[in-house]
Amino acid sequence: MQAWFRRILCAALLAVAAQAAASAPSLLIAVEDDWPPYSARGADGAPQGLAPQLAREAFRRQGVLVSFVLVPFARCLMLARVGRVAGCLSATVTDDNRGQFWWHPTPMFTEELAIFSLAAADAELNLRDLAGRRVGITQGYTYPSVFMRDAKIMKSVAHSDDDLIRMLLARRVDYILMNTRPGQLRIRGNPAAAGRVHKTGSVSLDGFWLAFSKARPKGRENAAKFEAGLSAMRRDGSYERLLEAFQPLP
């Protein structure tokens, strides 16, 4: 084959590939920027963590390209609610938000909502033990409805999980609620908290979903595609391999 012909052929193939990529469906998804190891802003500014990897791979199997915008979680939900993005990673389903979004049937992963305190002897607390106590929570996060509606629990709201830890260290609250693995990572990375802040109980074990906007067209269809992509990953073992890579705490 002549060199000039090979160059023409390669250029044509590249043009066809570029046209196919350009014509592929694409979705913009909001993702929380500060929830490692599930989602966070990397050193290069790009999203990293389990949630965006799952979303990207599940949609790839359905021929859908995904791009992300990194935002605080409260804004993530707002953008999906008003239709500025196709969906928000990663939300729990509660009585309060169940009708606000389209949900795929199977959660992406599960994570414990834990109780943390300064007293290690308080181990094995549960929701009932929080009545009459000052409990710190993070603004905009999706907590179980039974917890949020319990008027006996005195709730103090912080802007972030890091602020929650500072509130606890200052004894402005008796307990704080954080997801177990993200909370433990923050505690280990905070010299003032390491060895002082302990997991002392559990509120719930929650699933996490990609919440699809009802304000955009094809939201229900996109949820179905995402479910199909996750199912394909489970069948070929790639889902389990991806989860295993995130199991050990550093």
Automatic annotation (TrEMBL):
Record-linked SUPFAM superfamilies: Periplasmic binding protein-like II
UniProt entry keywords in alphabetical sequence: Signal
Domain of life: Bacteria
All copies of domain Solute-binding protein family 3/N-terminal, residue ranges: 28-245
Signal peptide: 1-20
Pfam families hit by this protein: SBP_bac_3
UniProt entry tagged with the keyword Endoplasmic reticulum: no
InterPro entries: Solute-binding_3/MltF_N
Regions crossing the membrane: none
Name of the protein in its database record: Transporter
The organism of origin for this protein: Chromobacterium rhizoryzae
